[in-house]
Amino acid sequence: MLNKNRTSLKLGNKKVGYFEGDKFIKPVIGSKHLLKFPYQAWAIDAKVFDDEIKPNANYFIVRDRESGLEYSCTVKDFDNLKRTINRGYGKQYSLSLKHWKIAAMEDAEASSNAT
């Protein structure tokens, strides 16, 4: 079923995720997008975070389509705990996996639908 409450967010021509209510959701393929060195982390373009996510969302969710896991944290926690990196794709912010709440996607979706 198509969710009409989603608003896509693009960086240039590339879709980086979408807003759904007060959540920003970034679908990923973990084996391709998960940072592995010097620590395991999820990252987002710094300008996208500062200009779009920070003022418009309360929660940041990464959905790994490969593993079926959902990683979530508050935007405030991401902002306070993030590290700045640049690995050839411009300035990005990363947050170590130890700061994310991790759940199976169906469990996470069920609990968010219950609220």
- What is the string of SSEs from the N terminus onward? EEEHEHEEHEEEH
Strand content: 35-45%
What Rg is obtained from the alpha carbons, in whole angstroms? 13 Å
Based on helices, strands and strand pairing, what is the structural class? alpha+beta
Measured as a percent range, the helix fraction is 25-40%
End-to-end separation in angstroms reads: 20 Å
Number of domains: 1
- Rounded mean pLDDT is 91
Describe this structure in words.
The chain has 115 residues and is of the alpha+beta class. It has one domain (15-107). The protein has four helices and nine strands, in the order βββαβαββαβββα. The chain has helices at 30-33, 46-56, 75-81, 105-114; strands at 6-11, 14-20, 23-28, 41-45, 59-64, 69-74, 83-86, 91-96, 101-104. The strands form two sheets. Strands 1-2-3-5-6-9 form a six-stranded mixed sheet. Strands 4-8-7 form a three-stranded antiparallel sheet. Strand 1 (6-11) and strand 2 (14-20) form a beta hairpin. The longest helix is centred in the middle third of the chain and has 11 residues, at 46-56. The chain is globular. The chain starts with 5 loop residues before the first strand and ends with a helix.
